[in-house]
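Sample 1 of the test manifest.
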Amino acid sequence: MFGRMIRGTLVRQWKKMLMIAFTIALGASLASAMLSVMLDVGDKVNQELKTYGANIKVIPKEASVLSDLYEVEDGNAGRYLKEDELGKIKTIFWAFNIVDYAPFVNAKSTLDDGSEITVVGTWFNHHMDLPTGESLDAGVASMRSWWDLKEGSWLDEQAGESADCAMIGAEAAKKLGVGAGDTVNVSGSSADKQLKIVGVYDAGGEEDSEIYCTLDTAQELAGLDGSIDSIEVSALTTPDDELSERAAKDPSSLTVAQKEQWYCTAYASSICYQIQEVITDSVASPVRQVADSEGAILEKTQLLMVLITILSLIGAALGICNLVTASVMERSQEIGLMKAIGAHNGSVSLLVLTEIFITAIIGGVAGFFAGFGFAQIIGHSVFGSAINMRPMVIPIVAVLVVIVTLIGCIPAIRMLLRLRPTEVLHGR
Amino acid sequence: MSLLELKNVYKIYGELHALDDVSLTVEKGEWVSIMGPSGSGKSTMMNIIGCMDKPTKGEVLLDGVDIAKESKKNLTNIRRDKIGLIFQQFHLVNYLTALENVMLAQYYHSMPDEKEALEALERVGLADRAKHLPSQLSGGEQQRVCVARALINYPEIILADEPTGNLDEKNEEIVVELFHKLHDEGTTLIVVTHDPEVAEVAQRTLVLRDGKLSKEIVNEHFTGKIRFDDQNPF
Ligand SMILES: Nc1ncnc2c1ncn2[C@@H]1O[C@H](COP(=O)(O)OP(=O)(O)O)[C@@H](O)[C@H]1O
Ligand SMILES: [Mg+2]
């Protein structure tokens, strides 16, 4: 009987029910699209950050304290890192996650015309044979792969004739009027050098007014044999979570087991910690700007999506509210009759709610699949990747549909409860 | 004890006294007609007796229970168990068949029973129309389905508010004939009508005017049993 009545209304009021289903489908599709994108893209961006790797900067402890105290960057306060410890970086627990690194030493020099220039000594494609039997070519050739080579070629350390060779930034090259194959005279604090330019690069930053040469050459210029100013490390890391954030604030707050877990997870902070263990008097810290700003944009985008979802659900609730109320009004005589022949409020409400919920389920399922389609479109056009279906989206969308439908039904049910048979049965 | 007793019942809408000090008694098995001009309070009285409305003042005793004091929920139960309703506009659910419309009353009363519902349709002579939708039935047939629906749960009292108002003479006769049968079986009937011919066949006719009972006519030809207490003889 109940089923027969439900079917009767659904068939008879199919246009209205279709509209209700459509309204719910619209709300559900937006909700599921936004949720899918939100849940999946968050992970995607994290994954990307992870594969790009966090850059870790290692500087001498004194320099770090000074720059913290005075917020000045210049002068390493006479303290340096030791060049002969560089190989140890590939011996830490997370050695395999260290994909690249390079030391830097700055030699403040003067040119022939008396103007100042920074000559930076570093690795370009420094070859290392590791104790594990593997070998690694590390240096700026891969770590600064975005540098745009304007002329000549990258400095090749493995080609033998690399001493006194150098690469020059585009701005400095323009100022000096030199190009690949020319030479530049520089005088450092302890030696003078004639550098042979092998390449001109455009880095789009302050490096463009600097000269890059081998570590040995710069050390000779500055008289800093065996010393380096800083190390940059590129490592694959696990995205930070609550544990790593606590460890970063205060490692001593962790229990032994937590510390173990932290140490054995490739967090940027635990890798930093391990680098500090092998490089004497050093401070290693992740360079976060890029990751943080991307994270902030992601958060804002997610907030926007949440707002869109909420607004679309409110819209759906209002739409349902109108349609269900109209449907109940249209059936007021029928409902009055049911009450007159002995139906209680509960059973009439149940009848109406069941109809609406059957409609809502149909609309919700259709909306869910449509939303999954939207998510793909958003994924491809905005984030450039497919969106994976998260099983979690299903229960969330289901709960949202139920809540929205219930809220939408409230006015109609109130009207239905107040409806008195005498008002509709005697045609006054 | 009388089946139904109204004692000084008032129904007041603002200034308007739709029922103004109405007192009446209906015995079990009686057939009573109610007449009166439009707006005289007939439907108002039927709604109160039918437990769909409460009086402003006064007592309404049905089987000794004062329904003026019952909760809404109890009123629904009393209506379901004791009262069969027939309306001028039929009020059938238009997507259910004749049979299903009868079964709807069973459904809200207790359990739908197809066999019993079919028997009820047989009693009103519509067994062959059981599977028809209301739109496929004539007005008279629709009203007979309503009679079947009203009697399906064996109510103590059937209330019909202008049951023949929308019917032609032939169907009117059929419905009145059905009332006769019900009366013979001992069902109490209260029938509101504009039609003197329909009113005449009852044992008693009450006339309402401006919310007051103005006349009571006893049909002597009916059974010969007279109970008479009015000051305005016919
Ligand atoms: N809900 C109501 N609100 C206000 N006035 C009403 C209401 N119901 C009935 N009335 C008034 O009460 C009087 C009696 O109505 P009713 O019982 O329907 O008359 P009848 O059925 O005899 O034609 C009428 O004047 C009508 O306008
Ligand atoms: Mg009336």
